[in-house]
Amino acid sequence: MGSSGAERAAERLLLAALCSVCQALQDGMLFPTESPSREVKDVSGLWIFRADESPERSRGFEQQWYKSPLAETGPVIDMPVPSSYNDITQDAQIRDFIGWVWYEKDVWVPARWIQDRGTRIVLRVGSAHYYSVLWVNGVKVTEHVGGHLPFEADISGVLRQTSGNQCRITIAVNNTLTLETLPPGTIQYMTDRSRYPAGYFVQNTNFDFFNYAGIHRPVLLYTTPKAHIDDITVETTFSDNIGLVSFNVSVLGSSKAAVKVTLSAQDGRCVASADGSRGVLKVTDVNLWWPYLMHENPAYLYSMEVQATAEDGQTDVYTLPVGIRTVKVTSTQFLINNKPFYFHGVNKHEDADIRGKGFDWPLVVKDFNLMKWMGANSFRTSHYPYAEEILQMADRHGIVIIDECPGVGIKDIRSFGNVSLAHHLTFMEELVRRDKNHPSVVMWSVANEPASEMPPAGFYFKELVSHTRSLDSSRPVTYITASNYARDLGAPYVDVICVNSYFSWYQDPGHTELIGLQLNTQFDNWYGKYQKPIIQSEYGADAVPGLHSDPPMMFTEEYQKTVLQNYHNVFDQKRKEFVIGELIWNFADFMTSQSIIRVVGNKKGIFTRQRQPKAGAFLLRERYWRIANETGNTLFKL
Ligand code: BDP
Known about the structure:
Blueprint lengths: L2 H20 L17 E3 L2 E7 L7 H4 L14 E5 L10 H4 L4 E9 L2 H5 L3 E7 L2 E2 L1 E6 L2 E7 L5 E4 L1 H6 L4 E9 L10 E5 L11 E5 L8 E2 L3 E7 L2 E12 L2 E11 L5 E7 L5 E6 L2 E6 L18 E8 L5 E8 L4 E3 L4 E3 L2 E2 L2 E5 L13 H13 L4 E3 L7 H10 L2 E5 L13 H18 L5 E8 L7 H16 L5 E5 L15 E4 L14 H16 L3 E5 L18 H18 L4 E6 L30 H17 L7
Parallel strand pairs: 25-26, 25-32, 26-27, 27-28, 28-29, 29-30, 30-31, 31-32
Antiparallel strand pairs: 1-14, 2-3, 2-4, 4-10, 5-9, 5-14, 6-13, 7-8, 7-10, 11-12, 15-16, 16-19, 17-18, 17-20, 20-21, 22-23, 23-24
Bound molecules: beta-D-glucopyranuronic acid (BDP).
Beta-D-glucopyranuronic acid binds next to loops.
């Protein structure tokens, strides 16, 4: 591979990053749902695929593969969408591929969508890793920087101008990570010709999960009327038994649309309504949205129907689930609906056999069943935003979420520069725009274990946290730290201190007897310095399922259990003071890159990658149900 190829790919990434920063977010990103005025057509499924294996990865652009059917450009293979492409074939080169890959699918667009000029047709990709360019019938319709978040394009014009209701969708995706992407990475050229062939390069990263790539979430076509509801922002509070829902609706395509908002209870009864694009709905005898195991009727959702009627009489209808709840932080507590909430939960990954990070309903439902089985009331979306469908599940089941952006592995001082910061700010804008209305989301996490002791980190986190707060003043903001408390330069700006530590694993391996002392010191130091509530946002140990030893040794199920027990003893003292949560690392085993410290992936799961429990899962299950019964407002049976 010639060095200029990857450099050019990196350059394209950079240009696009700058471009999206200049554009500041104007439009909304409502989840596509059907309604009397909207149709959705899922065009996921079987696509065709071609990796650009040319030495410079640039042949696809040079030969304009988007101009003709991909199969005419060279050999193509089947590729499921959504899915990572890495584990689908038997080819290690596809598994480890860096650079541009091309996807294509021919779909039919209903004739009436095309004929009715009052219909707006939108193409939406749930997420693709990391940088994507989209064409319809050979015409470029949009590009997007960053994985984990949706992007879309109005394709009505292109469809009406080109070949009618036939629609060839081409998506080129590049997984290259640079110092300015999120997460960051570097491309390293190996120049020693006695060890590496000409042009040999590797992608370096500083995070501990496999860098899966491809189209990871569903691809949808959907319609709205020309004058349409573009965005809705809801904020909720309550006083005594009155719930207050303030709303702000933005309509595009009409400057004089009449907006009507109606809120219905779960039995369909209308409980409040208002005219106008902004206002406050009052709900008497409110049913609050409570977390799972905090109330006997958790996760109560109202349904807010918004209607926007344009001058020509066309009405757009969009329905949004609304949970009424508040979140507050004091110096020792995390309050949901003014009651102390203790996070007893998990850290997850979007990760599974074969599909990698591809969205998969059976996996999502199984994971929620497992979380509820073990009595988990919360999870952190380590280390990037999860699919919207997962947040909707959390809303419906009362599982509380710390919503994290992919600021993971920021270890190089060059990733604290202005270009990186601008992209990070834009990413937070896109994340808040997408997730702001979910009652399950109670806190934003802007990064995981950055090198927060480096001098630029102070300015960087001050900007990042304050910008996020300006986007959403109703939720606390944090980042996850692993650095020494005294040298952490970002901690003064966050609302909650989230600390990861691996005593008896990365530090003093094998010495579980030290956990009590070291963990107590950790908590007292952080609290002493900042007087902010603390979440143990990661702790754990690898356990190879089926490996046993007593007395415990590292990598056995017994050792994982012993580490957990020692941590729990300290949590039980400190949760009476200022510790407000514990999140095990990790919910399930997950894939990583190959290295001498990983045996086919990270084994810190309390479930295997196939979601079978290890001994630690039963320990946590006992504990979480016990804590729920101590801290919830009601008694639950395990
Ligand atoms: C933590 C990281 C997490 C890793 C974990 C580990 O935040 O991503 O997977 O260590 O090494 O520091 O297991």
